[in-house]
Amino acid sequence: MEYTLFIMLLPVLMFLFLGLAGHKLRPAVAGILGCCSLGIVAILSYYAAWQYFSMPRVNGIYQPVTVFNFEWLHFTDKLHIDLGILLDPISVMMLVVISTVSLMVHIYSMGYMHGEKGFQRYYAFLSLFTFSMLGLVVATNIFQMYLFWELVGVSSYLLIGFYYSKPSAIAASKKAFIVTRFADLGFLIGILVFGYFVGSFNFETVGAGTGFGGAALLGDAARVMVPLALGLMFIGGAGKSAMFPLHIWLPDAMEGPTPVSALIHAATMVVAGVYLVARMFPLFIDYAPEVLHLIAYVGVFTAFFAAAIACVQTDIKRVLAFSTISQIAFMMVAVGVCTAATAHEGLGYMASMFHLFTHAMFKACLFLGAGAIIHAVHSNEMSHMGGLRKYMPITHITFLICCLSIAGIPPFSGFFSKDEILTACLEFSPVVYWIMSIIAGMTAFYMFRLYYGIFWGKEARHEHTPHEAPANMTVPLIVLAAITCVAGFIPFGHFVSSNGETYDIHLNTTVATISTCIAVVAILLATFMYRKAEQPVADMLGKKLRGLHTAAYHRFYIDEIYQFITHRIIFRCISTPIAWFDRHVVDGFFNFLAWSSQEGSWSIRNLQSGRVQQYAYAFFIGVIALVLILLFVVI
Amino acid sequence: MDYSQFLNMKEELSLMVVIAIVLLYDIIAGDKRKQTMTPVVIALMVFHTAFTLVPSQAYSIFGGMYTHTPMMSIVKAILNLGVIIVFLQADIWLRREDTKIRAGEFYELILCTLLGMYMMIGAGHFLMFYIGLETASIPMAALVAFDKYRHHSAEAGAKYILTAMFSSALLIFGLSLVYGSCGSLYFDDVTYTVFSGGPMAICALVLFISGMGFKLSLVPFHLWTADVYQGAPTNVTSYLSVISKGAAAFAFMTILVKAFPELVDQWQTALYILIVLSITIANLFAIRQQDLKRFMAFSSISQAGYIMLGVIGGNALGMTSLVYYVLVYIVANLAIFGVINIVEQRSGKLEFSDYNGFYQTNPKLTFIITLALFSLGGIPPFAGFFSKFFIFASAVEQGYVWLVFIALLNTIIALYYYLRLVKAMYILPNETPIATFRSDACTRVSLAICLIGIIGFGLVSAIYDCINAYSYGL
Hints:
The complex is a heterodimer.
Chain A: H1 4-21, H2 27-53, E1 65-74, E2 80-87, H3 89-112, H4 119-137, H5 142-160, H6 167-198, H7 203-206, H8 220-240, H9 249-252, H10 258-267, H11 272-279, H12 281-287, H13 289-310, H14 316-336, H15 347-377, H16 393-407, H17 413-428, H18 430-455, H19 471-486, H20 492-495, H21 509-530, H22 536-544, H23 546-553, H24 558-603, H25 612-634
Antiparallel strand pairs in A: 1-2
Helix pairs in contact in A: 1-2, 1-4, 2-3, 2-4, 3-4, 3-10, 3-15, 3-19, 4-5, 5-6, 6-8, 8-11, 10-15, 11-14, 12-13, 13-14, 13-18, 14-15, 14-17, 14-18, 15-16, 15-17, 15-19, 16-17, 16-18, 16-19, 17-18, 17-21, 18-21
Chain B: H1 10-28, H2 37-52, E1 59-61, E2 66-68, H3 70-94, H4 97-100, H5 103-122, H6 126-144, H7 151-182, H8 199-216, H9 224-231, H10 234-259, H11 264-287, H12 292-313, H13 316-347, H14 358-361, H15 363-377, H16 383-397, H17 401-426, H18 441-459, H19 461-470
Antiparallel strand pairs in B: 1-2
Helix pairs in contact in B: 1-2, 1-5, 2-3, 3-5, 3-10, 3-13, 3-18, 5-6, 5-10, 6-7, 6-10, 7-8, 7-9, 8-10, 9-10, 9-12, 10-12, 10-13, 11-12, 11-17, 12-13, 12-16, 13-15, 13-16, 13-18, 13-19, 15-17, 15-18, 16-18
């Protein structure tokens, strides 16, 4: 399966080509080149997936395949950093997700970014991102994952700040980079601790790829330190996946072009944290189940917190951003509630990956739909929309399908994956189950608030009549919506499960009924409140709960708290003294060095007179001095 | 005597064949044929280098008079590489009207000094070593005075020969003390078990060090350097600054390790002092230089101090880092001299201030000098960073923490004056900058080789590993 190397190589070559020579191409040519390369990547990924999953199972498990592994840095025989490609069920699944969404976004961007300045640069960055993300998922070891993890961060930074003349975009890109970078510090320390105590970075040798075992590898000290290392790694994952309290960058990241939000901040990069936890799952389950449950609790809180904020936001991309945070938290919860690696106790693992898959499709579709709407009305604000269903029928239908899916209405894909998550939660603890069910209801509510706000309700006045997006934008919407319709029926447990064995998904009827009922009730509530042009109930509620409403609208002031901590405490109490030390002591030392060299240089200039006799004297004096020193001073 | 032992000296023999061919070619070929002298010599040198690199065993012949180790082959090959680059750069100078008729002599003299250096490196006996040293020194004086009708060149030649005589006299006095105290001049027999640390032994050691210090231009034996570097033709200066220094450093290390292991404390102390003086004082002088060749002279003195950091440890890692340092130093320094030379040939300008605004007219050459200066200054990811790193590492391994600290402080000063040139080229304005010109093909090739070295030698770890595989120490 050596051809998988091309899955990696094509995007990076395209990045180099478009980055270096793009400005000489016509924009359309650059776009078509980008789409073609991604098309080939997608085909190769599908073929790899088909080939991988049609390989015979050994002991009922799909064996991981290391297609290719190259030793890059050698520390000890056990500890070395490799670069390679590891195919196993989850990485193959991710290949499919990334290449599909990325291809759709590439095609969509042809329409959306049409006529933008720096079109070629945009495609170069998209290719870079795709390359980094693919490299991340096929990593054979934790360090390679970290390398690509950072590359993903860089490409996200570049793309959020794509409109670099816009101050808010610059601020957002910096914020995203700094926050995730800060979290990655935890990841790096975790990796180093892990490497030190376990003595390997490799997934297969530490037993994380397959290794449902590997306990014998670890000594006593490692048993204590590995949970710590895994916890630190999770901090990195929490940063990328926008878990509370590191979520603050994601809403601001919406300053980037909307297709970028669809690709990076909805479908692929932000789930890297979930993927990381899933990658390290065997270790988590064997050595650090308590850390795993901590992840679940963080997830529950984040899911609720983000859902609450999403209910009152008015910028449609912000609503989707908070919804993304909430949905990723669902995935985190699902992995976190696993209690053992067996198929049944590890149901959450499968559910999480399943939800990752379905969510990537419908959330990308929602974002692309939002992009089409923004493209039509030139605004992000819900108040500038309303009644758009007449003007944009395709966008409307696809958006509705995805809303139903995320709300958990059968037979759309979101229903199936969310149902598995809730079932897994129920196995873990009824309390978590009920909280998650209510959050699922909130999801349905705010998504339909969004839906009605855009497509129904009071029609805003437009300067020119909004019209449906061009075909290269609607086709990706249709494709993604179609996948959303059918993806739920994929027997996902056959491909991915916590211990690799086939797991038959069977719906838990109680859970399914309850969650569907909650979703329907929430949708009806949203219909009642927001469908009409006048929204008396919503207004009244907003007035009655003014304090809560304002707090949620301001995202519970988390950004302000960050501001306070960084500006007031860190900058003033730590940075200022350090800056003073740097300016006066460190710089002073170097200034002294410069000054003394200048002075010294002046004072010795007469030594170099140009007279040979004097040179000989100096030579001879040097000899005598050395002899005297050696004879009398030192010995 | 078994004459077949001569066959073991394959590198020396091959070099002598090269010299003979060049000499004959110079005599036989007509004026027209002499146009193709450079390619012929280069081709011969490439063959010779390839022959040098043929794997060989360590051996000792003529009763220990002459020795060979695989490491020496590597060192000789590195010197050959430097000589090839110097020849490439000299081509344009040797086509000038006044030097054209003497082109052959230039090659022969340089190759003779190279032969002397081979003998210095391979010597197993102090007299053998001394003969090698003189073989390397005397033709050098002729080379320094090559442009004898130019005032500075003649003066530099005179200064060089006088100082060289002086240092040779002291050196041979030292050798006579060695003989007096040990009764032998074979490195293996020179042991100071009886006289260990006695005044005579120490005088012998110091006089030997001073002789090498002259070759390497370590402070305070360096005073000739700036005048000679400035006065000599640029190509000779570049040869003097890298090749002769590299050979001397390696010979210095092998002799200290082989002949004076008993006096290790003494020579380490002496080197400690010389290193601190060389690096610091040369840096202080370099700051104020206005003439580029003088500037490079002081830079090379301070670089020699760094090279000595590899010697002071006397261990295998030190030898590896020394050879590696020399290799990296050769390409970086020759890159700068290559540009200085072509600029001098095309415009006659040598002053620091002439280079103001050089970037505006010759961006590519500026770029090459910049990378070479970065490499000399030890900025990653260029090779100079790695070579400095390894040489510091080898010194720290021997416990010379403070010495390395002083050396590190001096790298900051060195960076200042290296960057001063960069600043002059990129930022400072100039009303009459050096005009745009095209370099000749030979210079281009030589600069390309240097550029590959500056970037590649650091990144390709195989080179360092290869050197490391053959190194040895106390």
